[in-house]
Amino acid sequence: MNFVVCIKQVPGTTDIKIDPETNTLVREGVPSVINPFDTYALEEGVRLKERCGGKVTAISMGPPQAEEALRETISLGIDEAILISDRAFAGSDTWATSYVLSKAITKIADYDLIICGRQTLDGDTGQVGPGLSEMLGVPFVAYVSKIEEIKEGYLKVQRMVEEGYETMEMSLPAVITVVKEINVPRLPSLRGSMKAKTAQIPVWTAEDISADTDKAGLTGSPTRVVKIFFPQRTHKSEMLQGSTELQVTQLMEKLEEII
Amino acid sequence: MEYFLTEQQQLIKSLARRIAEERILPVRAELDETEEFPWAIVKDMADADLFRIFIPEEYEGLGEGCFALCIAIEELARVCCGVALTYAADALGAMPILLYGSDEQKQKYLPDIASGAKLTAFGLTEPSAGSDAGAIKTTAVLDGDEYVLNGTKQFITNGGEAEIYTIIALTDPRKGSRGASAFIVDKGTPGFTFGKKEKKMGIRSTATRELVFHNCRVPRENLLSKEGLGFILTMKTLDSSRPGVGALAIGLAQGALEAAVAYARQRVQFGHPVSAIQAVQHLLANMAMELEAARALVYATAKTIDSGARNFTEEGAMAKVFATDMAMKVTTDAVQVFGGPGYMRDYPVEKMMRDAKINQIYEGTNQVLRNVIALELLKRKALRE
Ligand SMILES: Cc1cc2nc3c(=O)[nH]c(=O)nc-3n(C[C@H](O)[C@H](O)[C@H](O)COP(=O)(O)OP(=O)(O)OC[C@H]3O[C@@H](n4cnc5c(N)ncnc54)[C@H](O)[C@@H]3O)c2cc1C
Ligand SMILES: Cc1cc2nc3c(=O)[nH]c(=O)nc-3n(C[C@H](O)[C@H](O)[C@H](O)COP(=O)(O)OP(=O)(O)OC[C@H]3O[C@@H](n4cnc5c(N)ncnc54)[C@H](O)[C@@H]3O)c2cc1C
Description:
By secondary structure, chain A is α/β, with parallel strands linked by helices. Chain A has helices at residues 36-52, 67-75, 94-108, 128-136, 190-198, 244-258; strands at 2-6, 9-11, 32-34, 55-61, 80-84, 113-117, 140-151, 154-161, 164-171, 174-178, 203-204.
């Protein structure tokens, strides 16, 4: 079986700073790491490969520096790592990111399961996994905490819900996002680290994956970040009352006020 | 001090340190308390390829030598001498196969040792044969295509947990030590059982057990080398593994020194940290000096072995004795720097001092090894005359 793990390189800190001028994350001077949730996705990919045989590939869409994160995945047991990078991808929102990744995975073609982290440390949306499954037209389960059974065309998982677990079955190929309860990621191996030093990390551009550049990057992103700010720590909270419809209308009004 | 580690040796050092700090440190006090065998950590070490370090490349290893092994042991022992011994004793158990195994024996056993799928142990000591190893009573009698083993081994590290055992037994009891031979015995062989697990002063996460052989039939092809060469094999095995005991000692002392320095800077008496007191400073200075001298000796011995030297009995014994005596002293002084808290289980130096003692005892007691060093000295002098 073939597994694809999607990883993102993020600033290695929870102390995120936002540039008030550009409304973007300040990345200078912050060492980059593999998104912590993605380390569980990587470990699960390697374990599944050890269990079922086959191949496990890691991909990341990002700037050229993301190669470093991909190289590290080789030391953790990943067979092949591919960087998806193109100037045209810069500024992609979650929709555009999902689109680009789906094109890259379509190029990989031979896959059974795609594994993502539950969310990233910086963007924090948790939208890329579901977006990817939508664009690939395959089933999706979020918050997977255990792979119970996997065989050709079939997957049974346990996923975390607020007060317990759900067991779900689905057909393969599919996309899952995983939570940290799923495993304890291994440390790099010596053989892996030596392999990582010399491993070739191919770079796939928009052209390589036949991505429509109008659908990627800033131009292809339907969402715009209008403003980012640190919320004032006020302890005021307001509970909306009434029917769901009424609550939603009230909520929309409040949100519009804020924006 | 600059010891000129290669890129690969640096990688080994940093990875062993990560395992020690991320996987061992959080559980070392618990392992000491519960005396539980650290299987989860063994799995981590296996995943990280630490068991491949001392196995040749043609048997799925990394083909690094004694020096790289010592670096890994040292880093593990800096955090926990117990877990580090489990690892070092695995290298000891593999040594007879590495040094004396036939190609078939190596093919059969080394890849599983390299991957960490199977641990090993070395069984020499018996109730009546400690320093006087020639007094062993375990026998191996050839019957058809099998040797039949009878006897009891005592104090065997990794006993019960390991899958592969090298056992020294007498094939010709009339010849004494010249009648000893070495056998590879798999766990699960009928007639091979385990006696009690010892309750120890230190290194409490390690398993030390009795091995009991009662009409245990071992295939003839499991004889290592030739009949009668069991003692030479034992001596050569221990010569090669003693720098590893030295590495346990320097790692342990390094951990104790670091803890003592940190504590001395933070403990205030008479209005200033105790690190400002010259008597304490001199204690720390001596600890650091003696540790570095021991490290230099252990590394030099390991590099001598890696250079292909044929006889290094004396060097191995020196490295083991000097480093383990140093570690006993340094860990005792670390407790001294801590004062009362150092005597309590709440602080790590108490465990370090308990862990240090065994290193002066096993793989040849430090007195016996002083005999060995003196004997080599005198032999050389006699040869020149
Ligand atoms: C408020 C805000 C402002 C932003 N501003 C900008 C901006 O100005 N410019 C800009 O370039 N970006 C910006 N982003 C980042 C960008 O929209 C997202 O980081 C990106 O789309 C991925 O979404 P996410 O980080 O929320 O990932 P999530 O959806 O939380 O990630 C879930 C999982 O999807 C996978 N995944 C996510 N991203 C990738 C990837 N790139 N490659 C491979 N796998 C991946 C991982 O497995 C991850 O664990 C912003 C994000 C937010 C929330
Ligand atoms: C925790 C632990 C783990 C061990 N692991 C293993 C293992 O994995 N495999 C294995 O085979 N064995 C193992 N041993 C056994 C260990 O090697 C022996 O305990 C050691 O060799 C000493 O033997 P003894 O205990 O019988 O002491 P004895 O030989 O009875 O010695 C008693 C005292 O007399 C001194 N002495 C004895 N003879 C002389 C001499 N000729 N000159 C000077 N002084 C002398 C000793 O130094 C000591 O002080 C282990 C022991 C322990 C405690």
